[in-house]
């Protein structure tokens, strides 16, 4: 896709532009708020499927910005553009709108995704294609559509919101693991592997062939692999590409079972989007603070006014009427490297599988059974003691 000379000239005159997909609620909403408050962007665009929710999110963010003194809304504007992730025509229309309005994109945060609930009766094989079409294929197509605009950006960044559910060890086949982690992996090859996974799911042979058991996990593994490809290929254009895991957050996707706030999870995406001298996935494992499993990262977002974060926390505490999704808080969180995301155990539960609540239910049932058996044993011992004492009295 070619960029017109007029758009290229316009791009040099506008401030920094950030696009957040799936930003009408949850983690995406909090990402948009935090980007607006960073002071690094003149415009934040919310890419959302539902226009009513998109406009409502714009109003909510603008209202929150106005609670900060001096109002942050005076330097950052918020708008909504329609986006249906996975619909190529929608992707093209979004790119066209961004090109006409701004001529470029400086930061793209791919947050939008979908997941079937663990209790959803839809068969596993029928969940496969919709999940891959949105989470992986949709993310890839949208990003590829916007790359020409990102190449015109100032210190351009792409941040893909992945998941620990996309860990590499879900693949039982060492050959498959080698394919997904190959330093020469191309996007065409990656797409062919995902297509093969879908075919194997449909014919019921995916487990025998070494694939994982989660469609959601597979889609996120593919997103992590795509991140590595873009980081390698777009380095010559100055685009830094990273992915992050927000953790198991209290959102609609997790049926609000998550133990982490969406504000906390959002910060994991905001840091690589705003930090000064951000590494890419190709170099992030070389930084001890990122590769470490403990402590806090040594690199934090570049911010012209660090006191804004303090003001933000104070404003959130004073606003008792706001619900959890509207609170503006930016707690610090540790980043994990892409090797960590690929290899380590999960700290985020896969919303598409019921493993977590099933495990908890089984433990509860086991404890209740243990209590019941102990009580029965107590009654039997008490009865035997009474009978023995009665016999002694007769003697």
TrEMBL record:
<keyword id="KW-0521">NADP</keyword>
<dbReference type="GO" id="GO:0016491">
    <property type="term" value="F:oxidoreductase activity"/>
</dbReference>
<feature type="transmembrane region" description="Helical">
    <location>
        <begin position="361"/>
        <end position="379"/>
    </location>
</feature>
<keyword id="KW-0472">Membrane</keyword>
<comment type="similarity">
    <text>Belongs to the short-chain dehydrogenases/reductases (SDR) family.</text>
</comment>
<dbReference type="InterPro" id="IPR002347">
    <property type="entry name" value="SDR_fam"/>
</dbReference>
<keyword id="KW-0812">Transmembrane</keyword>
<protein>
    <submittedName>
        <fullName>Uncharacterized protein</fullName>
    </submittedName>
</protein>
<dbReference type="Pfam" id="PF00106">
    <property type="entry name" value="adh_short"/>
</dbReference>
<keyword id="KW-1133">Transmembrane helix</keyword>
<dbReference type="InterPro" id="IPR036291">
    <property type="entry name" value="NAD(P)-bd_dom_sf"/>
</dbReference>
<keyword id="KW-0560">Oxidoreductase</keyword>
